Amino acid sequence: MYVDNGLVIASLRDALKTALKARDRVAISALRSALSAIENAEAVPVEDSSLPLTGNEHFAGATAGLGAAEAVRKELTEADVLAIVAKEARDRTTAAEEYEQLGRADEAARLRAEAEVLAKYLAK
């Protein structure tokens, strides 16, 4: 189960709802990507998982019981979340520069606009 651990995540989720209602494709893309990156950072690698692998006669390595396949997610600090958002913004800026060099000004402008959406959460 996912629990918001800070104001940044709550702000990103609220902004996504607003962007969806407004059909703001640039903001939707940037916010979904940032939230996905945050959720991926919280995921526990399979080899670190504390899941019991009991197995049964039908499925090798299957787990048994209600919630047996649940793993505790990593707790990210506010600094961790901000670092992820900053990386997402930086990646877009870098890609925009590359698109600009290739003569793809339309894609570069879209990526810069996405980076600006994310930069709003770094200035807080």
TrEMBL record:
Pfam families: YqeY (PF09424). This is GatB/YqeY domain-containing protein. Gene3D superfamilies: Uncharacterised protein YqeY/AIM41 PF09424, N-terminal domain. The lineage of its organism: Bacteria, Bacillati, Actinomycetota, Actinomycetes, Pseudonocardiales. GO terms for molecular function: carbon-nitrogen ligase activity, with glutamine as amido-N-donor.
